[in-house]
Amino acid sequence: MVEVFAGRTLLNKDGDLVDPEEALRNKVVGIYFSAGWCPPCRDFTPILCDFYTELVEEGEPPAQFEIVFVSSDKSSDDMVEYYHDMHGDWLALPWTDDYKHELKQRYKITAVPKLVIVKENGDVITDKGRKQIRDRGLACFRSWLDAAEIFQNFKG
After folding, report:
1. In what order do the strands lie in the sheet with 114-118?
2. pLDDT at residue 6 above 80?
3. What share of the chain is helix, strand, coil (3-state, %, to 5)?
4. Is the CB of residue 55 less than 8 Å from the CB of residue 75?
5. Residue 56 has what DSSP assignment?
6. What is the pTM of this model?
7. Per-residue pLDDT tens over the stretch 94-146
8. Less Cβ around it within 10 Å: N or C end of the chain?
9. Which region, left, alpha or beta, applies to residue 96 given φ > 0 means left and ψ of -120 to 50 means alpha?
10. pLDDT (tens digit, 9 = 90+) per residue, 52-90?
11. What pLDDT does 3 receive?
């Protein structure tokens, strides 16, 4: 059960609506709080893209990992531009969805960028995803997967 985004609709980069129940089932989820106006975000996003590409797009089988971008951009247009120009092929909460405020409160987001790694039920594995990726690279995914308590097909 993917409780954290239950009843919500997510977007993919093509602008298609995605059911989170299907897209996030049996996966470790990185909730990426970020904004295009934020220099540290623009610095980290390409690193996160590489991490995601290696794990999910080039992994055999693809790693059980998905990212959901939660925007702190000033407008929907700003979010779409940042999402399309810099982000990987992951999902996003629509800019117009006020649930982003609830998520920021739930995960105690006071500044961006912040990558919170959660289990399917929304429980936090780590709120230091950004630091762990910078320090440990792909190795950090194994510890997240172990903590997530999901059925595993990951061999890395």
Report:
1. 17-18, 10-11, 91-92, 65-71, 28-34, 114-118, 124-126
2. yes
3. 40, 20, 45
4. no
5. I
6. 0.94
7. 999 999 999 999 999 999 999 999 998 899 999 999 999 999 999 999 999 98
8. N
9. alpha
10. 999 998 888 889 999 999 999 999 999 999 999 999 999
11. 86
Residue 115: strand pairing partners: 32
Burial 48-61, CB ≥16 within 10 A → b, else e: bbebbeebbeebee
Residue type, 122: G
d(C-alpha 24, C-alpha 32), whole Å: 14
Write down the pLDDT at residue 155. 52
Q: Is the peptide bond before 61 cis (omega within 30 degrees of 0)?
A: yes
- Distance, in Å, from the CA atom of 8 to the CA atom of 23, rounded to the nearest integer, reads 12
Which ranges of the chain does DSSP label H, i.e. alpha helix? 20-23, 39-52, 76-86, 99-106, 129-136, 139-148
